[in-house]
């Protein structure tokens, strides 16, 4: 009952002047008939004296089917005690206390009063609720389900003494008596009637979707009275039921003809499937509600949704639908501003081919949100960020940070590229659409002073082809240079987002510091030497020819990043930072941290993870295909500094990768754990310390 219920007035009928007595009598009768709350009928059912464990358990399940907790429990509040805010076009509403507290909750409700509130939107004292409480959907509940829910709320929920908060609804919408007319026009309070021409499974799905699940509250378009244009799939306007709607700058997608039953069941059970991941308020629906549904109920819902006719085209499915793997990298990836921006800001998670990372980051290929006619959800997520639903199947929550730091035109370029590549011909997104959404959402903007270079700007340079080649050699190193890379690493395995992330060894300013004297080597090191050092020491491979086109392309790319940086300049975030060597590592805890935070991307035994085609998505951290002794990752405290600021990704809402977040101790522990694991050797290591002793934290 998502309504604060604090206004206790009921309108009283007043007679008109005697000269209009006839009209007044008729008008008064109609007014009284419409406005006077329907009578309370207990149906012969009273609250049992003792709690019936089986009935309470059934009622608890009904409450999960109806997702009661989502509206009636605040983030830090007691269950069902109300107080959660709901923004409406007319002001703020707050959910009510539906615990059995007799003073502030529903403890004095008879079953008849409860049933009337759930079906007709009228509280025990006759106050009309706003239909933000989805009583038009709950009206379809069977009497037995309604009674089980009543018993659960009265006997299975602890009473909480918590006053309801007054609403922020202003005049004239605070005149609740007018809602009686709304009910007269739009409410059908009769329980669900099964379709005799359909099977038991289909009818069970229809009952849950139309009733307890109140799916239409978000997924059905609304009319001039803010009523759902259809409450079911039959009758006038039935084709509009669940056809999609825009809610608070989210596109609640078209659920009609949703697709494969198994895919829908997996999405409702886990919050993700091979084609996408839920977003927005749907993450709470999954967390609080649908993950707890029985498998037969999930199958029933999926069967019903999949059977609804639709004329809306779906996103084209990937070339290998059994795996969800996209087929190829789009041709425009490296020739357009949107493509290059995608390669910089999105590919580390969603991959160059849009396939995503199974069980971690959603694919874009075949994703219904990408192909939706209304791009609102894409724009919303990009501006404000996103998080996966926390479920029993996926306890770790992964996040996507908001990209509000990017300009409206940049975001429009990226999303237009995404929709052109994987949206089945979906219309491009305009900068105006992004600007309008930004004004409404007012997203938080990252203000770190580090200037993230925009790789898309290389297209403005006369040597754009060479610069793009240099960028690709950085991000696709082991693919484009198989003769020079002896493992499966790319430069971007350490230099995240094509070398543009602060504290992730970004290339901003790197080339300005070369040539430089390296005390360890006892000689001057050029940028070409440093690049080849990575091929030899990190990638277990062979050096590039210093006068070859590939080396020139990489150097040109680094030099382009340098801009006006001079050797003496302080470049914020240029390295990986430092971490105190006074912290003593605990390898047992490091193993636990690795299992909890690292294994999902790098494998439970450091083996990395592959896509369905057998290609590495994220590299191994030990073993034959891992780095050998380069990049400082074979030293505990250097590795810990990198981990502290850059791993894991998707851990929080920080721009641009949600990276970092472990404590200093955790970073040291996990760095000690993985940096001393076996991996390839490097014979010239004997020359590493010509003057001084090797560092105490070096693994060799």
UniProtKB/TrEMBL annotation:
Keywords: Heme, Iron, Membrane, Metal-binding, Transmembrane, Transmembrane helix
Occurrences of domain Cytochrome c (ranges): 54-157, 194-309, 333-422, 585-678
Feature: compositional bias, Basic and acidic residues: 688-700
Residue ranges of the TM segments: 16-35
InterPro entries reported for this sequence: Cyt_c-like_dom, Cyt_c-like_dom_sf, Cytochrome_c-type_DH
Top-level taxonomic group: Bacteria
Family annotation (Gene3D superfamilies): Cytochrome c-like domain
Chain intervals for the UniProt region annotation (Disordered): 681-700
Pfam families xrefs: Cytochrom_C, SoxA-TsdA_cyt-c
Keyword Iron: yes
Full protein name: C-type cytochrome
Protein's organism: Xanthobacter aminoxidans
